[in-house]
Amino acid sequence: MNVEQARFNMIEQQIRPWEVLDQEVLDLLFQVRREEFVPPPYKALAFADMEIPLGHGEVMLAPKLEARMLQELGVKPGDKVLEVGTGSGYMTALLAQRARHVYSVEIHPELKAFGERNLHAYGIRNVTVELGDASRGWPAHAPYDAILLTGSVPVLPEAFQQSLAVGGRLLAVVGEEPIMQVRLVTCVAEGVYRTDELFETCIAPLRNAWRPSRFVF
Predict the structure, then answer these.
(1) Is residue 36 classed as helix, strand or coil in its secondary structure?
(2) Mean predicted confidence (pLDDT) in 158-187
(3) Three-class SS state of 175
(4) Is 216 exposed, middle or buried (0-12, 13-18, 19+ CB in 10 A)?
(5) Residues 10, 100: Cα–Cα separation, whole Å
(6) 3-class DSSP state of 159
(7) Angle CA(124)–CA(68)–CA(15) in degrees, nearest 5?
């Protein structure tokens, strides 16, 4: 496989047509080598338009969704970022290239170790990977300038938006199968939030994501 040609094809044939037009994001996708974050059995699929299994029921998201999320979150150089779900560490690495510091929380010890190894091998130092369940919030290092949830939630817990700094953004996939909405919440002033529904997608839920109680008749 010609790796650089495959990377070029991924960006030009999958990602750019999915309305990812921010040149800084596209440049980052050329710079951060996705194949170095993929589990060894799936290296040949590093640039495929698909989710890649990580074990424990978790996956790497499809490249075009990763790129679109990165674009919509709009991370800036001085930002302190919270990522919920470290996984392979690839999205963490993309965030870290743009942010001041990334706090990434992973619920599975084995995946935390895998993601940390990948980030360390790649020479990324402005990331703190923590073990825990952040499905309902992670206020330990708040306020954050940007928050990204890498799994879906049926309902978005208020704890996340309450952890935003003024001007901060929260990107999450909200809803249940078959249709979910990618939602961007912006803290426009202390205690005041604007919500934008961006596009539809469908991804696996965060482990232990809060679900509203249902009436049973």
Answers:
(1) helix
(2) 96
(3) strand
(4) exposed
(5) 28
(6) helix
(7) 95
The owner of tokens 């170790």 is: 113
- Residues in a beta bridge with 56: none
Report helix, strand or coil for 196: strand
Structure tokens at 51: 């989710």
pLDDT tens for residues 39-95? 999 999 999 999 999 999 999 999 999 999 999 999 999 999 999 999 999 999 999
By CB atoms closer than 10 A (0-12, 13-18, 19+), residue 29 is buried
The whole-angstrom separation of Cα 119 and Cα 108 is 16
| Percentage of residues of the chain with pLDDT beyond 70 | 97
**Alpha-carbon dihedral of residues 14, 15, 21, 25, nearest 10 degrees?**
-150
pLDDT for 212 equals 73
Q: Whose structure tokens read 């510091």?
A: 101
